[in-house]
Amino acid sequence: MNYKNLYTISLIVVCTLLIGIVINQYTEKKYISNSLLLFWDIYCKTAILDYINKLDYLVISIPHREKIGDIIKVGSNYYCLMNKHPQEYSNISILLDEITKTCKYLRVDSLIGISTAGSDHYSVGRVLQFNSAIIENYREYSLQSSYVEGKKILYKTSEFISQPIINTKRLISPTNSQVASGEDEFVTYLVSNKLNIFSLTLTGISNNKNLNMYKDGGGKIAAKNIIHFLFSQFILL
Is 63 helix (H, G, I), strand (E, B) or coil? Predict the structure, then answer.
């Protein structure tokens, strides 16, 4: 065997190993522990309750529960059924402070946002992992910038996307550059960056052109798909 053939074979072996490593990175189940998971809309909350009803869980009492939502502990993770959307706060700082205090009280290592978002760009029912967001009318929320990016990503899944999710307030009509709308992701990145903990968001896509998107515009199937994706991609300890 000459050196040229040996080099070719070695190159093929190395490329095969690298491809295997990349595939394994996205297909092997990853572990989530000591995390606070925020479930935002009604369908996400219904879908997760349907799932954890099959498991052993404990309802946790925390200070000011009424300001954030009910918290259920499953294993080492905490599932928060959010009382209100960010759009419902006249001052977003109230919500940010409550999530921050809850993270500190529970001493979690990561923050995960689970929500649906309307889009006329992505297919209805698809699950995406964003890691950055742009919010419109951010000054109304006493924020200093319209852009935020999660500084510490817990994991990158096969559905990770580098493009920011474009967020709106009170379902404002999307701009030409808008690919999906919602504000829950923005909040997750802000709080996790402030606390310097890991973050991850999973967003199910509904129909942005349907004014009843959370009723018959794909919100229900999007939420079910998120929960399926969550437990098929991760092992929650």
Answer: coil
Domain count, the chain: 1
User: Which DSSP helix (H) or strand (E) runs through 165?
Assistant: strand 165-167
Task: Specify whether the CB–CB gap between 61 and 105 falls below 8 A.
Answer: no
Mean pLDDT of residues grouped by 10 in the chain (237 residues)?
Answer: 55 52 58 96 92 88 86 96 85 90 97 88 88 81 83 96 72 48 83 97 80 59 94 93
Smallest CA-to-CA distance from 178 within 139, 122, 222, 224 is with: 122
Domain range for 71 is 32-236
Report strand pairing: 35-39 vs 77-82. Answer: parallel
DSSP track, 79-122: EEEESS-GGG-SSHHHHHHHHHHHHHHHT-SEEEEEEEEEESSS
- H-helix or E-strand spanning residue 133: strand 132-135
What three-state secondary structure class fits 236?
strand
Task: Please check whether residue 6 lies inside any domain of the structure.
Answer: no
Residue 160: CB partners within 8 Å, gap ≥ 6? 129, 131
Which CATH number fits the domain that encloses residue 45?
3.40.50.1580
User: Average model confidence (pLDDT) for the chain?
Assistant: 81
Q: Is the dihedral of CA 173, 179, 185, 187 positive or negative?
A: negative
Q: What tens digit of pLDDT does each residue of 44-101 get?
A: 999 999 999 888 889 998 888 888 999 999 999 999 999 988 878 878 888 999 999 9
Q: What's the rounded Cα separation, in Å, for the pair 88 and 90?
A: 7
Q: What is the pTM of this model?
A: 0.81
